[in-house]
Fold this protein.
Amino acid sequence: MADAIKQEARRLGFAACGIALAEAVPEEILAGYDQWIDEGHHGTMEYLQRNRELRADPRLLLPGTRSLIMVAMNYYPERKQDPEAPQFAYYAYGRDYHKVVKKRLDQLLHYMREGLGLEVEGRAFSDSAPIMERYWAERAGFGWRGKNSLLIIPRAGSYFFLGELLVSIDLPPDSPMQSLCGRCTRCLQSCPTEAITHPGKIDARRCISYLTIESKAEIPPELRERIGRRVYGCDACQQCCPWNRFARPTTVADYAPREALLALTAEQLDQLSEEEYLALFAGTAVKRAGLSGLQRTMRGLRANFED
């Protein structure tokens, strides 16, 4: 049964699929998370402080949950922006991953019911609930959490969206794998703003993704030059990772970049109207920052675009 589920997951476009036993998250893992919050490393993302009980035990999200089916979907782009253009993180090139991953997990649940004839309750998520996704992906055995805090899949890299399907049946769990980062510290050394304070620990207040997406404040003057031309997110700690030499372009059509995005210039971004912004970024993750957020970032980084 587990093999059939994994095979169907791959048919649906997931690059990896594993199973974890639904249980409480170990207290030492939660304590580390609590300490990160207490130190203020989450910045203004107050939602990360809420729902500790749900974060501590996925069975509270769906009573009766017995297993977590964890998946990863490749988003690495075949075509990329000109380095002189305003840079968007690769994950934002295509359609909003929340909807893409969840829709296919819903299809996987339908297959379990109709294709395998299982009486199963289930609920799908992708970065849309207080679930410690990287922890559960590790438990499901298809990767480990790197020193940049991202999940790394052996001989595949880290350019993946994660998702989970909570189900009410027992499935044989996979075995976690050990970290294969070794002594490598390239991600710590390559972070432009030194946001990776220790292996696996990020200070969001210095992270370019936080500063250009989540934060509503102006870009700190002392970090503006370091951010370069990154106006939405950052891939620096992935681009330097040796494991990403194995990255291959995604075959998921939803993540193909829009031509208008690939051709976008700093001048065009500066002058975008609300209507043009909605037409260009409708259905993408970029809507999280909003036009005002993008243009606020552009104002802060203006000097980085001048010859």
